[in-house]
Amino acid sequence: MWNFRYHVLQDLLPGDAILLGNLEIPGRMDSNRGQNGIQLLLAAEQEAQHIVNAARNAKMARLKQAKEEAEKDIAEFRAHMEAEFQRKVAEADLNLPIKQSSGDSGANVKRLEQETEAKIHHLEIEAARISHDVVHMLLKHVTTVKN
């Protein structure tokens, strides 16, 4: 960074003025005033750095605040959805028939297994009955060429 400033100051011609924000440094300076000009430039650079740092800190504060608000909103939404879920579970429990004793539970499992097996057997019979027609229809559509 020093090299950049040095080259900028070195390339100035006598009589050139430097405009830095609202601060104008006259071009004609004796050696004493030249040192003051460099000091002014350094001070202006420090002030600019402070402004940039303040803006960066303000941005980080806004991002942190937005993150906190988003987390709060998420927590509220999660609590709302959990309460809704619990309400629906409780409502579903009320609509179920009264649970039978555990001895009847084994009978229910066996009955459900038998019903499932009967439905599977029925589907297998139906599939075997219509499979020939389905294969014939598919072959017809696959081999038919339309213009």
TrEMBL record:
Q: Which InterPro entries match?
A: V-ATPase_G
User: Per the record, what is one GO cellular component?
Assistant: vacuolar proton-transporting V-type ATPase, V1 domain
Keywords on record: Coiled coil, Hydrogen ion transport, Ion transport, Transport
Question: Molecular function terms in GO for this entry?
Answer: ATP hydrolysis activity; proton-transporting ATPase activity, rotational mechanism
Highest taxon of source = Eukaryota
Similarity remark: Belongs to the V-ATPase G subunit family.
Question: What this chain does, per the record?
Answer: Subunit of the V1 complex of vacuolar(H+)-ATPase (V-ATPase), a multisubunit enzyme composed of a peripheral complex (V1) that hydrolyzes ATP and a membrane integral complex (V0) that translocates protons. V-ATPase is responsible for acidifying and maintaining the pH of intracellular compartments and in some cell types, is targeted to the plasma membrane, where it is responsible for acidifying the extracellular environment.
Task: Give the multimer and partner information.
Answer: V-ATPase is a heteromultimeric enzyme made up of two complexes: the ATP-hydrolytic V1 complex and the proton translocation V0 complex.
Full protein name? V-type proton ATPase subunit G
Which organism encodes this protein? Hevea brasiliensis (Para rubber tree)
Query: What is the organism lineage in this UniProt record?
Result: Eukaryota, Viridiplantae, Streptophyta, Embryophyta, Tracheophyta
